[in-house]
Amino acid sequence: MADSTPWSGARPPASRLRAATVMLGIAWQADRRRAVLAFGIFTVQALVTASFAWWLKLLLDGLAAGETWRVVAAAGAVAACVTAGTGLDYAGSRVRMALNERAHHLVERQLAETLGRTPTLEIHETPEHLTQLELLDQESWEFGEAIPSLVQLTNTAVQVVVTVVLLASVHPLLLLLPAFGAPMLLLSSRINGLYELGDELAAAPQRRANDLWDLATLGDAAKEVRLFRLAPEILRRFHEAHREIRATHLRVQGRGLALGFAVRLAFLVGYFGAILFVVDQAVRGRVSVGDVVLTAVLAGQVLNLVDGSGEILQWTLRTLTAASRFVYLNDVASRSRATVDARRTVPERLRSGIVLDHVSYRYPRSEADALHDVNLTLPAGSTVAIVGDNGAGKTTLVKLLAGLYQPTSGRIMVDGIDLATLDPDRWRARVSAAFQDFARWEFTAGEAVGIGDLAGVDDRVDPERVTAALDRAGASDLLDTLPRGLDTQLGPSWPGGIDLSGGQWQKLAIGRAMMRTAPLLLLLDEPTAALDAETEHLLFERWTAAAAAVRRTTGGVTVLVSHRFSTVRMADLIVVLDRGRVVEVGSHADLVARRGGRYAELFELQARSYR
Ligand SMILES: Nc1ncnc2c1ncn2[C@@H]1O[C@H](COP(=O)(O)OP(=O)(O)OP(=O)(O)O)[C@@H](O)[C@H]1O
């Protein structure tokens, strides 16, 4: 659980002042007209509420004095207050809802942009960042509360002043009444801190519960859940996670509840004390009946005000915390671009190649390097195969080359330029990749391939380029099996959508990687694992032949990760990784000839199993 508690609930992840500015900016940007309307409505509402008790007192005093004109005027004002109060309440809640919805959508859009702008996978793989992201996801609708909260906070202050003046007009001692509410206000931030702490401590079991819910309800794991009869086990773990969430909330927030109850009790003592005092004054003939009613109504309002202010303060603080998470994630996104040097440009073509210079990489919170002191040269125009046991660091190396991670130490040089200084978007525009754990884009088949290179075609998919990419991927046969060709909707959960086999999905992923015809770097990280060895061999042969001419002009490097030596042996250079270190580098012939070498051993093992 420790991994989900990067800071105590009392300290937000980014400064509250910055968060407040950002939050107000978003709420204002989301809907200016409603923001102004909310300000007007809540201000008038505060004035109406504050003056109600005064009109009531005038009404009663007028009745006691038998002054008809005063009674009629005051009764009219009381009726107007009640009518306006109801109307403003309704209008206020509508405006608030609309404002909330718009601000919520704007925050979600900006958050998605922030994540999309983050070049590395750091946000998704660092528990601290993940916790912020998940909590913000739950809290993003609170941004809409920014303007109403601020307006209400100001209006509450106005209302407090009016109430204090009116109370003092009855008897100065009544000014003690608001003092009984002070503990409630003072402790509200502490109580709020306890609620936030509860949310954060419960973030890890909450994530577990969400994962289990997905496993139990989504199609991804449906086969295994049924086959291994895992439903009861998932349910048991789900219950356990929820028990942990409840216990955490109870443990932390229980203290908040007790505190809240105690401060309310303290206020009630003051409330009844004030009523008894003013009734006593009336019995002695020192104040009027109107004053007694004025005090009773005002005392009730003070409770509402204190309670309301505490609540608004709490909401404002919660909203501020949500905003500070937003600022924090934006900072993480900006930090991951901190090394970029705008003056550097990605070379048009590679002349010397890509050099890894003492590169090490350690995953966040990991205790060992996934890659350690890697020194490698990937010559321009070459095809390089990376081999090694499971967990050797092959995918990590591929992700580093794609710029999805930044080396913990060392540098990756692209024709002598440090990759960390290149604009990640520009570098990505010249990189193409297909991964083993590719995404299944449930778009039309044409879109699922075409998104591999939207640039230059006005973000629209060009059927001719898609067909050519599928041809390069050796996946043209797939088109014949799709009922509406490239227009076929993928994904059985969509109307008219169809599902594909694992191999067919994989062919689309390779097609996507083939959309860019002249990348400086093509990364193929076991993209053919779902295909048979022969198809993989043919595919690689076809790609190598098709790309040879292009590579001669662009100097592009192809990096292939595969466990199949029939494919690997075609590469110009083979890199053998073992537990994060490069242990051998050379051509197939060189490495096989090395007696006792790791490659020779692995090759012999696989060859034997085919004999
Ligand atoms: N996101 C991650 N967080 C922490 N550790 C990770 C992460 N991804 C991989 N690792 C660790 O880094 C090491 C290298 O993993 P990597 O995926 O690069 O291996 P690989 O050679 O590609 O393995 P495989 O052949 O099974 O795909 C492994 O010890 C793995 O446990």
How are the secondary structure elements laid out?
Elements (H helix, E strand, L loop, with lengths): L15 H15 L1 H34 L2 H50 L4 H4 L1 H13 L6 H25 L5 H26 L1 H15 L4 H6 L3 H53 L5 H47 L17 E9 L9 E9 L3 E6 L5 H9 L6 E6 L2 E2 L5 H5 L2 E5 L9 H6 L12 H10 L3 H6 L20 H12 L7 E5 L7 H22 L2 E5 L3 H4 L4 E6 L2 E6 L1 H6 L4 H13 L1
Parallel strand pairs: 3-8, 3-9, 6-7, 7-8
Antiparallel strand pairs: 1-2, 1-4, 4-5, 9-10
Membrane topology: Multi-pass membrane protein
Subcellular location: Cell membrane
GO molecular function, one term: ABC-type oligopeptide transporter activity
Helical residues, percent: 55-70%
Low-pLDDT stretches: 1-10
Strand tally: 10
What is the approximate shape? elongated
Name of the level-1 CATH class of the domain at 14-335: Mainly Alpha
Secondary-structure content class: alpha/beta
Strand content: 5-15%
Rg value: 34 Å
What is the name of the CATH architecture of the domain at 14-335? Answer: Up-down Bundle
Fold-level CATH name of the domain at 14-335: ABC transporter transmembrane region fold
CATH superfamily of the domain at 14-335: ABC transporter type 1, transmembrane domain
Largest sheet: 6 strands, mixed
The helix tally amounts to 21
Question: Which ligands accompany this protein?
Answer: adenosine-5'-triphosphate
InterPro entries: AAA+_ATPase (IPR003593), ABC1_TM_dom (IPR011527), ABC1_TM_sf (IPR036640), ABC_transporter-like_ATP-bd (IPR003439), ABC_transporter-like_CS (IPR017871), P-loop_NTPase (IPR027417), Type_1_exporter (IPR039421)
GO cellular component, one term: plasma membrane
Domain ABC transmembrane type-1: 36-304
Transmembrane segments: 35-56, 68-92, 157-180, 257-279
